[in-house]
Write a structure and sequence with these properties.
By secondary structure, the protein is an alpha/beta fold. It folds into two domains: 220 residues, Rossmann fold (3-Layer(aba) Sandwich), CATH 3.40.50.1000; 125 residues, AF1437-like domain fold (Orthogonal Bundle). It is 50% helix and 10% strand. The protein has 17 helices and seven strands. It has a seven-stranded mixed beta sheet with strand order 3-2-1-4-5-6-7, sandwiched between helices. Helix 12 links the parallel strand 4 and strand 5. Helix 11 crosses helix 12.
Length: 368
């Protein structure tokens, strides 16, 4: 590895849903409405993808969590319900081990999440991350409920029935119908009844990139001095910000919206392997990280067959022991140098990531 001065500053920013917990909390909360709630969420999530990729002014990826608020209110869902759903959320394998190691080594860990605060703070506590290091979506359903009139309740019930009639095939011509109907609901009808959808400010898209800039400015460091980890459309602007400014942008079990904007890929059912990237970055900077992931990418089959052949400079004793003890029982991780990938290679990386994504996140893996 390149012999540069070890970094004194160690800062890492994680998306929550995907890298740290497989649950999509808002999706699970909407399921409290039954199958209809799950379907409504999937349609609004699809709508979110569509208008995010259109680059609609004032809209950011992840604003789904603002769009579903009136449906939560209409169905009497409370913050206590959100906490109850969060309480059954799992932690991604290896995350607790990884965080303990990073904390022992002096890393300053942040969570930057679209998740409602009731969920993000719960997961953060389990990982030893304080609330002041958890940047997430603030939600006060009690206050918002006062803004939803009786006419709005009626409107939402009618809209829900219409939307469910469009559910059968979101990839067909009904996608255009869906977009038009939701445009009308969120940007015309509800505001006309006095309910302002975007009073809930979701931490997604550009707001995640803003959070990274704010963190680095407050710490007096550069964006190139950090690692950011994400997996979905809500993270691509954060990943792009870090990658373009010379930092390490890691996509973990990402989808097609996130992979192209990272410079490093990690596909695995266990996130503890991220520690190798952190160690390389701490000791020798970005160039060493890119050398590490390239070597693992080129030698993956050989390393998988016998972890003993992995050079000491490319694996820690703990990771080697973990691989050896789980040989044959754990899918071997994939590292990728996404920065140098052409279109064909990028498509291959996305396919690999999607496979791991569905294994780790299950139903939530299909969401953008």
């Amino acid at each position: 590895m390149v012999g540069t001065t070890p970094r004194k500053e160690r800062t890492i920013c994680f998306d929550l849903e995907g890298p740290l917990s497989p649950q999509d909390n808002a999706y699970e909360v909407m399921k409290l409405m039954g199958d209809d709630g799950a379907r409504i969420f999937e349609m609004i999530s699809r709508y979110d993808d569509i208008i995010s990729l259109q680059g609609r002014a004032g809209y950011e990826p992840g604003d789904t969590l603002a769009l579903i608020v009136p449906f939560l209110l209409a169905h009497g869902i409370t913050e206590a319900d959100i906490r109850r759903v969060s309480a059954r959320a799992k932690i991604v394998d290896g995350a607790i081990t990884l965080f303990r190691q990073l904390q022992t080594e002096g890393w300053d860990i942040y969570i930057i999440s679209t998740s409602y605060e009731q969920h993000a703070h719960h997961i953060g506590r389990q990982l030893g991350v304080s609330e002041d290091h958890t940047l997430c979506t603030q939600l006060n359903l009690e206050n918002l409920g006062f803004a939803l009139s009786e006419a709005a309740f009626t409107l939402l019930n009618e809209a829900q029935d219409e939307l469910l009639g469009l559910y059968t095939d979101l990839e067909s011509e009904k996608t255009d119908q869906l977009t038009r109907r939701l445009d009308e609901l969120f940007f015309q009808q509800l505001p006309a009844l006095g309910f302002e959808i975007f009073s809930t400010r979701v931490v997604g898209g550009e707001r995640k990139a803003e959070a990274v800039r704010t963190i680095t400015a407050e710490k007096g460091i550069s964006v190139r001095d950090i690692i950011a980890v994400g997996d979905s459309i809500t993270d691509y602007k954060m990943l792009n910000e870090v990658a373009l400014r010379g930092g390490i942008a890691v996509v973990f079990n990402g989808n097609e919206y996130a992979v192209p904007y990272a410079n490093v890929g990690l596909a695995s059912i266990d996130i503890r392997f991220l520690s190798l990237i952190c160690e390389a970055f701490t000791q020798h900077g970005k160039e060493a990280v890119m050398e590490l992931v390239t070597s693992w990418e080129l030698n993956r089959d050989r390393f998988a067959n016998d972890p003993a052949v992995i050079p000491n400079s490319e694996v820690s004793a703990g990771i080697r022991a973990f691989l050896t003890s789980h040989a044959g029982n754990l899918p071997f991780p994939y590292f990728h140098n996404v920065e140098r990938a052409d279109d064909r290679k990028r498509a291959e990386i996305i396919a690999i990531h999607k496979r791991f994504r569905m294994q780790v996140r299950e139903d939530a893996g299909k969401l953008g």
